Amino acid sequence: MSKQIDVHDLNIFYGNFHAVQDVSMTIEARSVTAFIGPSGCGKSTFLRTLNRMHEVIPGGRVKGQVLVDGKDLYARSVDPVDVRRQVGMVFQRPNPFPTMSIKENVLAGVKLNSKRISAAAGDELAEKSLRGANLWGEVKDRLDKPGSGLSGGQQQRLCIARAIAVQPEVILMDEPCSALDPISTLAVEDLIDELKQDYTVVIVTHNMQQAARVSDRTGFFNLEATGKPGQLVEMGDTQRIFNNPAEKATEDYISGRFG
Amino acid sequence: MSTSTHKRPQRSAPIDGIEPSEVRTAPQHLVWVAVGVGLAIALIAGFALNLSLGLVLGYLAYLLTAYLSFRATAGSRVGLDQLMRGLIYGAFALALLPLISLLWTVVSNGAMRAFSSAFLNQTMNGVTGLNDQNYFDGNADFIGGAYHAIIGTLEITAIATIISVPIGMFTAIYLVEYAQGTRLSKAIRFFVDVMTGIPSIVAGLFAFALFGSIFGVGTKNGIAGAVALAVLMIPTVVRNSEEMLRIVPNELREAALALGVPKWRVIYKVVLPTAASGLASGITLAIARVIGETAPLLVAVGGFYALNTNPFSGPIQTLAVYAYEMFTKPLNPGFRDPSLERAWAAALILVLIVVALNLTARLIAKLFAPKKSGR
Ligand SMILES: Nc1ncnc2c1ncn2[C@@H]1O[C@H](COP(=O)(O)OP(=O)(O)O)[C@@H](O)[C@H]1O
Ligand SMILES: [Mg+2]
């Protein structure tokens, strides 16, 4: 259940603002790919084009190709709704649905689409997803309590459970730990490591140690100056990027000599 | 960078012109002194001059005493705090006074008639000035009530609600979810604002003219009244709903979209339920706003002495129009009192309905509110 993503010459715009320029890359299946780079260089923007969430923003548009196992996400005939079922997303701030219980949150992808699902199957899917998100043990006794009653780290894992309950091929995470304490961060990092058995995982992070810890491959984004579009400076095996970067900018950023 | 050798600045190093402020306790009993002074002045001036002047002078005396005494004992900041506190309480009382006075007038004039079974269960069908005269002379029981007007008010308002809620809600959904920042949305918002300011009589004339041109000049019926009320209600519903939809966090929309939920379902299953409490109470308040309208109903529906439940034909009585007619055209000009009683009673019933609607709005807001975190 995982797919390779090929991006060709992707340019991303907010209205007339050119946010990301000419990105080409390959994201390998069953691996964790991390994006690092300074704030505002377009990491989130780029990530959101991988499941067509970018166009949700008024004025958001994209030029170029994103191929998932050879099929172009941006082809005319492709329905963005189907893309998002295949490519799930976890956001920076945990955002469980406040009107729903923990279980309803996990099953939100099914329930919101009014798919019929038997109670037993629903229970099974909820348990499987919560186990997949390393949260089952902590919430199994209070599945009917509101999801907003969990701690921040638990809420984030709830959101991950919600994303994997839709059974996507790819999971995108935008700074999933930046609102979490170190222990919750560790829990989520462990989880990411497990997720790559089954999914293609792409994670944006501000934390370089985290990128080094969890990812197999790393892409470094940068922008030449404010107001200029962000670019992919280089991408490669995490080991190589951190130990032996090809570009000066990457080295400067990684070693903390930046700006 | 070793912090241990780093020398901290001396904590209380004196700086020219800046002195650490000492902690002074404000003597709270001074409030009671000020209240006493205020009351004394109010009483004296109240008896010597007149009551309202006494109240004003007493209030000013309270402000002055509180300000000066606290200033002298606890410093100017505390004195100013007390002064502002007094001013704010004063403004609050001033704002509340007309409301209480209005409620009191309506209740005291209307209460004894409003809850009698004759008033609640009878229409004005067959009631004449002679009945009022007999009642006034003590020769007969009071007859003639507002049953038909209560039913008419509820019916016309309900139809107006049925017309305006879908239109208003869909407009709000369009503005917030589909047309954010577009020119069309700005234009719509502008016209909605203009509509908010339409005088109600104009809405009545509009409905009257509209129905006149379709069904023949002079057509007056319940639907025409409901249309007039809807014209007044729609902008309120749009504005309230828009506000409520706007405060639904965008994260929730994105969370649902990212799960592969189509946009219309996101609106229907996530946005609307999250905003439900606000939407429902906004609609209830919009109803409360139009339920007491008189002018548009007078023009578009007219008044009627008997029960008419058919909104498609003929005039229907409503509470506000009933009160207006009883007041301006008493059944028996020689014996006005029974008619005035009816007018006040109708006013009281109307006020009670509005209060009930407001309470309902609060209840709905509580019931639908998103589950609070139990953390
Ligand atoms: N909703 C938006 N509308 C317009 N511009 C945006 C929006 N979101 C982000 N941007 C711009 O796009 C650029 C990239 O932002 P972002 O992708 O959030 O950066 P990062 O995630 O790397 O910090 C920034 O210049 C930012 O100002
Ligand atoms: Mg970002």
Furnish the topology, listing elements before pairings.
The complex is a heterodimer of chains A (259) and B (375).
Chain A: E1 5-14, E2 17-27, E3 32-36, H1 43-49, E4 60-68, E5 71-72, H2 80-86, E6 87-90, H3 102-106, H4 108-111, H5 119-132, H6 136-139, H7 152-165, E7 170-174, H8 182-195, E8 200-204, H9 208-214, E9 217-223, E10 230-237, H10 238-243, H11 248-254
Parallel strand pairs in A: 3-8, 3-9, 6-7, 7-8
Antiparallel strand pairs in A: 1-2, 1-4, 4-5, 9-10
Chain B: H1 29-48, H2 51-74, H3 76-114, H4 117-121, H5 129-136, H6 147-178, H7 183-196, H8 200-215, H9 222-246, H10 250-258, H11 263-291, H12 295-300, H13 319-328, H14 337-368
Bound molecules: adenosine-5'-diphosphate and magnesium ion (MG).
Describe the structure in your own words.
The complex is a heterodimer of chains A (259) and B (375). The mean pLDDT of chain A is 91. In chain A, the strands form 2 sheets. Chain A has a 6-stranded mixed β-sheet with strand order 6-7-8-3-9-10, sandwiched between helices. In chain A, strands 2-1-4-5 form a 4-stranded antiparallel β-sheet, covered by helices on one side. In chain A, strand 4 and strand 5 (71-72) form a beta hairpin. Chain A has 11 helices and 10 strands. The N and C termini of chain A lie far apart (41 Å). In chain A, 34% of the residues lie in helices and 25% in strands. Chain A has a domain at 5-96 and 170-254: P-loop containing nucleotide triphosphate hydrolases (Rossmann fold), CATH 3.40.50. With 259 residues, chain A is α/β, with parallel strands linked by helices. Chain B is an all-alpha fold and 375 residues long. Chain B has 2 domains: 30-112, no CATH class; 147-368, MetI-like fold (Orthogonal Bundle), CATH 1.10.3720. Chain B has helices at residues 29-48, 51-74, 76-114, 117-121, 129-136, 147-178, 183-196, 200-215, 222-246, 250-258, 263-291, 295-300, 319-328, 337-368. In chain B, helix 7 crosses helix 9. Chain B starts with 28 loop residues before the first helix and ends in a 7-residue tail after the last helix. The mean pLDDT of chain B is 89. Chain A binds chain B through residues 51, 53, 56, 58, 81-86, 88-89, 91, 93, 95-99, 101, 108-109, 111-114, 145-146, 148-151, 159, 162-163, 166, and chain B through 180-181, 249, 251-262, 265-266, 269-270, 273-274, 370-375. Bound molecules: adenosine-5'-diphosphate and magnesium ion (MG). Residues 43-44, 174 of chain A line the site of magnesium ion (MG).
